[in-house]
Amino acid sequence: MQPIILVDPEFSAVIEAALKQIKGPKPIVIDVDDLSFSGGKRIGEIEYEDAVASGDLDFDWTPVKDEWDAIALSYTSGTTGNPKGVVTHHRGAYLNAVSNILAGNLGQHPIYLWTLPMFHCNGWCFPWTVALSAGINVCLRKVDPGKIFQLITEHGVTHMCGAPIVYNTMINAPDAPKKKPTVPVVGLIAGAAPPVAVLEGAERIGIKITHVYGLTEVYGPASVCAEQPG
Of 206, 204, 118, 122, which Cα lies nearest the Cα of 156? Predict the structure, then answer.
């Protein structure tokens, strides 16, 4: 089976240089023409939407034979900061996706804003989490407080995840909301326990935070600091 690579226009030059170093058969290159990005160039044989449209509706797919088989190979900085490859299996991804729904109180049809980088092992399994809960993905090219607040209002965002620096950036942004919304966004925050100032600051701009902790080298959140009375 010939490998496939999806190319974001921001990294077309990097991928083009990498392809020149391949001595054997090259992968099928599919361009993802993101209208929210200006620059880059098309280097592939086909564009993503056209590739999807050309799919076979009658394709007879083969179910997974063993739930311990690999579902993804991801790369992450990890807790130690040293880049490494991580293989996750179907069983682990499924269990973590279910757990994310419970820990994040996603319910049905959440509107999830991607403030968590996919570089953290598939974003703590949230691509599967959102799919499992029949939700909507609202995507960002980078963490931009002004854009985040705009998307929250525009799309009615219900959930988000991120490191402490993401929430700090939002709290201290000059265009941060001045009053709480009627329904706050549910936010998961990872890493060291956030100080009270972050919890209070997030609530002030309309985000109700729950602290979670795990390993980005594995699947993401593994423990939850459930809110206590008072």
Answer: 206
pTM of the model: 0.88
- DSSP character at residue 191: S
Q: In what order do the strands lie in the sheet with 46-47?
A: 4-7, 28-31, 46-47
Q: Per residue in 52-77, pLDDT tens?
A: 999 999 999 889 999 999 998 888 77
Q: Give the tens place of pLDDT for each residue, 153-172.
A: 999 999 999 888 899 999 99
Compute CA distances 132 → 29, 95, 127, 199, whole Å. Answer: 29, 11, 9, 28
Specify which residues 31 forms β-bridges with. 7, 47
The pLDDT > 70 percentage for the chain reads 98
Residue ranges of the chain that CATH labels 3.40.50.980: 90-225
What is the architecture of the domain spanning 90-225? Answer: 3-Layer(aba) Sandwich (3.40)
Distance CA 50, CA 36 (A): 18
